[in-house]
Amino acid sequence: MRTIRFLLQKEFRQIFRNKAIVAMILAVPIVQLLILPLAANYEVKNINLAVVDNDLSGHSQKLVNKIISSGYFKLTGTCRSFKEAFALIESDKADLLLEIPQGFEQNLVRENGQKLFIAVNAINGSKANLGGSYLNSIIRNFNIDIRTELLPVQKSVGLATIETTTSNWFNPLMNYRLFMVPGILAILVTMVGGYLSALNIVKEKEVGTIEQINVTPIKKHHFILGKLIPFWILGLVVFSLGMLVSWLIYGIAPVGSIFLLYGFIAVYLLAVLGLGLLISTFCDTQQQAMFIAFFFLMIFILMGGLFTSIDSMPGWAQFIARLNPVSYMIDVMRMIVLKGSGFQDIKYHLGKIIVFAVVLNGWAIWNYKKTS
Amino acid sequence: MPEAVIKTEKLTKRFGDFIAANEITFEVSKGEIFGFLGANGAGKTTAMRMLCGLSIPSSGHAQIAGFDVYKQTEQIKKNIGYMSQKFSLYEDLTILENIRFFGGIYGLSNKMIKEKSDELITQLGLQNEAKKLVGSLPLGWKQKLSFSVAVLHQPRIVFMDEPTGGVDPVTRRQFWDLIYTAAEKGVTIFVTTHYMDEAEYCNRISIMVDGRIRALDTPANLKQQFGAGSMDEVFFSLAREAKRGE
Amino acid sequence: MKQFLVFVKKEFFHALRDRKTLLILFGLPVVQIMIFGFALTNEVKNSKVVIADQAKDMASQQLINKIEASQYFEIEKSILNRKEIENAFREGKIKAAIVFPENFNYDILHENKATLQVITDASDPNTATTQSNYLGSIITDYQNELNENMAQPYRISTETRMLYNPQLKGVHNFVPGVMALVLMLVCVMMTAISIVKEKETGTMEILLVSPFKPLLVILSKAVPYLVLSLVNVTTILLLSVFVLQLPINGSILLLFAESTLFIITCLSLGLLISVRTQSQQVAMLISLMGMLLPTLLFSGFMFPIENMPYPLQLISNAIPAKWFYIIVKSIMIKGLGIGGIWKETLILAGITIFLIAVSLKNFKTRLA
């Protein structure tokens, strides 16, 4: 035990003397927590629309107005030909174009129907999908308006309508930040913890100080604990700062129990740090450790469910996602912070993370050889 | 003959096809200053690392302070001190912090740590430098620090790998004074060097060439054996045959 | 020139001997392509929903069957009351719930109007919106089925054509982004670290004292990574074409030329970082946390730039990856030639020249 006290003293001294690292640990996550949520926004709005109105009638004007006033679209071009509008799509000035044929207003009544043409830049598949479906639903509504206008009242009876009322729970204002911020915080804590612990033992190897340590009678697990604990504390500090920022800037306060949250993070950090330590036992240079840590962290973050949902992944990918501690963290962050989930709800997550922590740290200790 | 604190028998270390240390056999008695000479690449550091418990031998036997080099490496470490060739202490801590840290690691009580650190700092003349970050100090001070850490916990054997490399003559003298003092107290010193004049200070020396021990005796006997006037000449006669190193 | 080649050779040895790093450098783009190409998608599928069917009549059953038949939803179970629904959400087991009122069928037949309640877990707003949309279209389908017999006059129909990516595959968006990301990372990080490492270990001093121009020394460090990155570009393109079935519509030569430009941009950035940092750790942390996240965010491939607040949009203009991403998309997917991308190319070249100038200026004063 006493040994650990000495180890911690040394580690903390070294950490605080390294001004650059301290800045990185504290400033960078905070800054990113401020900027990332502003940027990370998947909502589809401000879609650039180019309109080719070959009819220029009252109806066509009304349709265009209706589209613009929906708020989803921005009119970036009123073109006189399809070619003109298409050029706008090519130069990325428009995301989609709508062509209204000549005689639209007249022929709607005369021929009982008319066809509009829409072309969508579908490079971004989901944006195209949503954009297209918004446009179609506005046109549908416009159709209903026209029909009601043109038809005598009785004829519209007999058509069944199913209406839906939608309630959005846990985030009634559909605030995207509430969704992203806890997840981003989880990722930042993971990155800080993972990289620092991965680099730490390797640095001693690279610089050579590990030789002096190996020649002492110090026990392996003491040494590893001495490395684990400082970064565990730092991780918790970063997390707390992050929570503070979330509260001050975004007004996010956990609906569920803060103790439960901290309890989970404490265990989660052990798992992440364990991974970092494990990586560092395999590498000889800081460069290698950095790259390998980055490799794993990138996979974990991308497949963690923050940017895209895990449910939508194919089976094999979901399997990998289940082996990913970050996905559990992001889940739990959201569950406790937004939904107020309790211990019963997260006990499976907790169990799995405990397994991760034990396996990773155990493996790191086993792998670390004082004698080669 | 007084008790042997280091006993090796055909100790060998292989790295693939390369035999770094080849059937090293010798004994060192308590309180002896044993010099381990050889050119660069001869295998000195490899041999020393095996004796310190840092490297498992490929074959052969050895006992350090009565403990087996295969199975009891942790026991060995409790009883030895080590000063490595490349500086291996913490550059971002001060001299005092380094000493205190290792004192704690070796299990010395707080009182002992304070006593020993004061003692060593005075002995080595480090009073003015004690609170400075090691990284900012010139090599000589760093070597003195390494020495302090090696003897801090009063081990039975101290292993030193080229302790005076790159150090000024005054400091070199100081080191050897300290080595003599320790040896008088019964500490066994195992030192590698390629300064031939230092070889004369040792009780016995061995000379390694291409991984094998080619000579093992007191400096006087060796000079007689090779008909040489100085250890330099003895070394030349042997090292000329060397195929490895420079 | 010969001297320069000597240095380049040494750098190649350095790079090639570090097997572990090499593995990651080559493996990274492959893995990323696999993940982005196959695992990540913005679509919402297999969402678990819960049905509270208070009607239990023919209409509700028909609609439930329809929902189940779609690939978007998986019906988890049927429960009855609000509390149970709440718990199910809290346990994270379901993402949406649909409540059918008691007289669903009756209301449709006799009143021509029925109301359903859809409850979504809006802690994930995007998924919630998408799910509402999907449900909405399933319900509208059902509604149209019911009304098939009634003629609908004055019908405005639309023909929608999806350009460049008719199957709405996500890869079109991701692959150019992955290219930008991987190139950026490898070039910036590796250059920065490799130079700082020499500073740290002291070998830099030896090089500076030699008769060779320090600039040549630095450039020689960049060459292996230039080559490596071009190999990576080739790998990514091969994978995209043959594994992801994403064709290259434009000129491959132009693509490589632009990639080389971007690589040089990143190498200069790495150089700049190395000139201003003293330790490997800091160089790495800056490259990763200071470079990776901004690139991920502001290049436009993960999150649409037009949604960001205006100041952030301005910042994104300074990120080289953003311009490269546009260039790659234009060449690969839209099939445009130099005429369509000259503006972006010029901007990228401008950024590069700026970076090189700044690093060179700092170079001599800082390196020693």
Note down, in words, how this protein is organized:
The complex is a heterotrimer of chains A (372), B (246) and C (368). Chain A has 372 residues and is an alpha/beta fold. Chain A has 2 domains: 2-40 and 175-367, no CATH class; 47-156, abc type-2 transporter like fold (3-Layer(aba) Sandwich). Chain A has 14 helices and 5 strands. Chain A has helices spanning 2-17, 19-39, 58-69, 82-90, 104-110, 125-150, 176-207, 209-214, 220-250, 258-282, 286-302, 315-322, 325-339, 343-367; strands spanning 47-53, 73-79, 96-100, 113-121, 161-169. In chain A, helix 7 runs antiparallel to helix 11 and helix 7 (176-207) runs antiparallel to helix 13 (325-339). The longest helix of chain A has 32 residues, at 176-207. Chain B has one domain: P-loop containing nucleotide triphosphate hydrolases (Rossmann fold), CATH 3.40.50.300. Chain B has helices spanning 44-52, 73-79, 95-105, 110-123, 139-151, 169-184, 196-199, 219-226, 231-239, and strands at residues 4-15, 18-29, 33-38, 59-64, 67-68, 80-83, 157-161, 188-193, 204-209, 212-217. A 6-stranded mixed sheet of chain B has the order 6-7-8-3-9-10, with helices on both faces. Chain B has a 4-stranded antiparallel sheet with strand order 2-1-4-5, covered by helices on one side. In chain B, helix 6 (169-184) links the parallel strand 7 and strand 8 (188-193). The longest helix of chain B has 16 residues, at 169-184. Chain B is globular, with a radius of gyration of 18 Å. Chain B starts with a strand and ends in a 7-residue tail after the last helix. The mean pLDDT of chain B is 87. Chain C has 368 residues and is α/β, with parallel strands linked by helices. In chain C, strands 2-1-3-4 form a 4-stranded mixed sheet, sandwiched between helices. The longest helix of chain C is centred in the middle third of the chain and has 31 residues, at 171-201. Chain C is elongated and about 95 Å long. Chains in contact: A-B, A-C. At the A-C interface, helix 2, strand 4, helix 6, strand 5 and helix 7 of A face helix 2, helix 4, strand 4, helix 6 and strand 5 of C. Strand 4 (113-121) of chain A pairs parallel with strand 5 of chain C.
In short:
Chain A is an alpha/beta fold and 372 residues long.
